[in-house]
Amino acid sequence: MPNRTRFLGKTFAAAGTVAALALATAVPAAAAAPSTVEQDVAQLYQYVSDLYNGLPADALRGVDRLIESPIPQIGPRSRAAQDPIPGCTEGSLLTYANKLAAQLTPLENQAMSALSGLSQLYVQGVATDKAPQVFGTDGQYTARATDTIRKLRDFWDIESWNIQLVAWKGTDLGSQAKMAQTFSLGLAPAKVKNAATLATKVLYEVPALQGGRHPLLSLNAFSAPADSLGGKRVALGDGLLDTVDFLGFDDVSVEAVVGHEYGHQVDFAHENHPRNESSEMGPDAYGGYFVAHPKGFGWDSRTQQEVTYLDASVGDCYHSHGTPDQRKAAGAWGEKQATSQGNPNRIIPSATMIRKFQEEYPKLMPPAAATVAAARG
Ligand SMILES: [Zn+2]
Question: Entry's InterPro entries (predicted)?
Fold first, then answer.
C-alpha cells in the first residue's frame, strides 16, 4: 500500500511543476492528468510483470543466480520458503545486500524490483558480447573480465566459443532503445513504447536509484544454459563488483565470480544438475581449481585464501546455495586439487573433476545439514 501522506505530498508537488510547465509549453487539451511517481512505479511494475508472464516457457529455466537478491523478484520463485539452518550465519555479502535493501522505502523497493528484473532480462535476452562489453561502473574491470573469460575458454574442455560474457549494468536502464528491445521479449507490441519510456522515467524520478548506479540494481551474477532465453552466457553485475570491492575482495572479484559462473557452464555441458548444495559448491570447487592452477591464474596461497572467503561471503543459511562454511570448504578443495597434483600443468578433464567433486561433496557437508538433506531425500 502506498503511504497516504507521501502520496498526497507528491501529488501537490507534481501539480505545481505541471502548472509551471503548462505556461511554457502547449499541452494538448486532451492530455491525460499527470501521473504521480507512485502511479508511474505501479504501472512500470505491472508492465514488467506482464513482460515476465509473456516470456517463452523455458526462458528462465536453469538460469543460476549467484545470490538470492533481497529485492523481491518478479517471475517464478526459485526457492520455496523455508526455515534457516540453525546456528548458521549468512555470508557478509548477503548481510550487506540485506542492509541496503532495508534502507529502501516501499516505493523505492517496488521501483527497484521492477527495474532490476527488467535489467536482468536485458542482460539475458538482448545484450550480446558481439558489442564491446564494459565491466564495472567506469569500465575499470573490462580488461580483467576479458582476460578471465579467454583463460576459462582455454582451460575447460567444454564447447566454449558460444559462451558469452556480458556486462550487467543498471545504467542500461537509461536507454529507451535497449528497454524497448527488452519489453519486446514478452510484452504486447502496442505497449512496448510506453513501457520503455516509463522505465527511463522511473529510473530518474526515483532518486534512490541513482540513475542506474544503485548497487542493488545489478548486485548479482548469473549463468544461463543453452536452451534459455539468449542462450549460453555468464552475466557479471556492476553492483556486485562494487559491493565485492567494498567488502575488501576487489583483487579477486572478477576472476573468482566469473570462474564460479563458468563452473555452472561446465555442469551444464555435462548435464550435471544436482538437486542439493553441490550445485553451487561444485562451481566453487571448479573455480578454485582454475584460479590456483598454473594454466588458470596460478594464484599464491594468500590469494587463494581470499577467494575462499569470497565464496563464503555469498553462502546462505538455506539448503540452496550452500552455507558460508560449505562454500569455503568447496573452494579450498578445488584449489588443493591444483596445488597437489603430480604434474602441475595437467588440467583434469571436466567430467573427471565433476565426478571427483561429487565423491568429495558429502565429506564437505557438516553433519547436521547432511542429516536434514538426507531426510529431504
Ligand atoms: Zn552459482
Answer: Peptidase_M48, TAT_signal
